[in-house]
Amino acid sequence: MAKKAKKATKKAATKKAAPKKTATKKAAPKKAASKRKPNAAFMKALTPSTALAAVIGASPLPRTEVVKKLWTYIKKNGLQDSKNRRNINADEKLKPIFGKATVSMFEMTKLVSKHLK
Question: CATH says 42-113 is which class?
């Protein structure tokens, strides 16, 4: 029985896990903390179509402001779907812009871009 005990201890000793090699990457040098510059394409003032102007106004606005004003209109009039908050139920002013009764919030920006020049 003494031989079995020795074999067991030897096996346990040989089954040690080999240390894993990890890939070493050099850290990228950190840039100095600078303010993020806005993209010029987002800040360009665009003129809305007549259908869109009925909702947000006729003055030229950047695309970001157009979306903000649309969301203000949607929330003010309670047009967000109560069950699925990602959907917007179009009223008589939004139907000509969207082209259908219900639109997802992600699809909304695509449809609105067709009404901006």
Answer: mainly alpha
